[in-house]
Amino acid sequence: MKELVEKLKENFEAFAKDATAQIENGNKAAGTRARKASLEIEKALKEFRKKSIEASKN
Is 27 helix (H, G, I), strand (E, B) or coil? Predict the structure, then answer.
């Protein structure tokens, strides 16, 4: 689960960097990368929720 949290942290940092580049500079490619990162974050959060619930049952 620790690796999953690290992956989430890395993905969120990448998302924040690319989203900022899109907003401040109008960088369309950064917007595409930010959207991709948001999908990866969503998947990782679902996996975290699943593992967290599993761990709380033990």
Answer: coil
Handedness of CA 19, 32, 8, 46 (dihedral sign): positive
Residues 36 and 54: their CA atoms lie apart, in Å, by 28
What SS3 class is residue 35?
helix
Question: CA-to-CA distance for 18 and 8, rounded, in angstroms?
Answer: 15
Percent of the chain with pLDDT over 70: 100
Cα separation, 33 vs 20, whole angstroms: 11
Q: What is the pTM of this model?
A: 0.84
